[in-house]
Structure formats: C-alpha cells, structure tokens
C-alpha cells in the first residue's frame, strides 16, 4: 500500500487522519528506533518502551505525510470562475512543521491573502495547501515561499501574500534556549509587491493576530 493510500481518512475538522499505514515503512523505521533507544541507554524491551519504536514510526509518517500530497491539485480541485477582485484573506491558520536541521517541531500561524483574477478557490483549500507543505521537513523560509508559489502558479491571481510566525523548539528546548522568540517570514507576489497600499492593507488586516 502506498503512503498516499495510507492517508485516506479525513476527520471532520479537515485534518488528515491516518487509519492505515504503510506497514513496510513503519517496520523499517521502527527497527532503527529500537536501536536508537538502546544507543540512548534505554532498555527497548521494558514494558513502556516495547511499542515505542512503532509509535514513533507512525508519528513520523504522519508528520511527513505532506510528501505524498500534490498541493496544486488541491487548489485545482476547487477553483471557481467568479467576478470578485477584492482581497481574500485567510488568517490564523495553524501550522505544525518540523525543522530539517534537528527534526524538532516548529509551529505557529500562517496568514494568507490573494486577489482573484477571474477565479476564486474553495477557502478550505488554502489551509490544506499549508498542511501539504508543512507536513514535511522544512525551514520556515522555504515553507513560506512554497505556499506563495503554489497559489500564484495554480490560481494565477493578481497577487499572493503569505506571512508566517512560528516558534522553533530547536531554539527553545535546546541550543540557544530562547523561550519566547518568534520568527516571522513573508513572501509576496504581484500587487502585494508593486502596491504599497495593498500590502499595508493586508498587514493591517492580519495585525490583530500578530501581537
Ligand atoms: N533559517 C532557518 N534556520 C532554522 C530554521 N529552523 C532551524 N534553524 C536553524 O538552523 C541552524 C542550524 O545551525 P547549526 O549550527 O548547523 O546547528 P546547531 O549547532 O544545532 O545550532 P544551534 O541551534 O545554534 O545550537 C540553527 O541556527 C537553527 O536555529 C528555519 O526554519 N529557518
Ligand atoms: Zn532546528
């Protein structure tokens, strides 16, 4: 069974729920984690840990399921011709990703806007695109750009704006150990780049969630 098939379930809140896994992959990853537990000085046979390698393998499969999703097809599946040319903003989209350097979580919010150019897109598809790119090993900058490029290239709007604000556990629970730092990234195209007023309007609309 492919990982994609393994990810067929969808819960009501729109998040992908795994109810079948790629057993081959789970077994291979779990075997490595059993070894890792030993290397860390643990006893992988003790009661609490017996199933841990399999649990971790399943968790990792979930946390990286974005590799099997085609974000542009998500958008294409719900594009509608519509004569609406004002800014559409979807803000406060929860983001959970993992930094590719330490494989530790970073999480926060994405705020996304586009200005239609003949087509609008089903609103839920925008958070789905965010999930498709964030459920991979990432850096926040690339994640921001990938979301922007996907919406721009698929929907061809007058412009796209993406702002992300995230906390990185690799900066708080280890390393430099800064508990409250938040990283903000942004990416714009079209009118959001060329027109200061449009960009300012977007930033004003999302400001309430930036403090
Ligand atoms: N630009 C960027 N850097 C990130 C992101 N996530 C983690 N990092 C950084 O990746 C860098 C990796 O640096 P290295 O010096 O190779 O790793 P390290 O020795 O573990 O670094 P420290 O975290 O400073 O202890 C660190 O500075 C992290 O803060 C991200 O999304 N974007
Ligand atoms: Zn990191």
From TrEMBL:
GO molecular function: GTP binding; GTP cyclohydrolase I activity; zinc ion binding
Source organism superkingdom: Bacteria
Listed pathway(s): Cofactor biosynthesis; 7,8-dihydroneopterin triphosphate biosynthesis; 7,8-dihydroneopterin triphosphate from GTP: step 1/1
GO biological process, one term: tetrahydrofolate biosynthetic process
Coiled coil: none
Assigned GO CC terms: cytoplasm
Entries under InterPro entries matching the protein: GTP-CH-I_C/QueF, GTP-CH-I_N, GTP_CycHdrlase_I, GTP_CycHdrlase_I_CS, GTP_CycHdrlase_I_dom
Domain GTP cyclohydrolase I, chain residue ranges per copy: 30-206
Binding site for Zn(2+): 99, 102, 170
Keywords linked to the UniProt accession: GTP-binding, Hydrolase, Metal-binding, Nucleotide-binding, One-carbon metabolism, Zinc
Pfam families xref list: GTP_cyclohydroI
Enzyme class: hydrolase
EC number, UniProt record: 3.5.4.16
Catalytic activity: GTP + H2O = 7,8-dihydroneopterin 3'-triphosphate + formate + H(+)
Quaternary structure (record): Homopolymer.
UniProt similarity note: Belongs to the GTP cyclohydrolase I family.
Name this protein carries in UniProt: GTP cyclohydrolase 1
Upper lineage: Bacteria, Pseudomonadati, Bacteroidota, Sphingobacteriia, Sphingobacteriales
Record gene name: folE
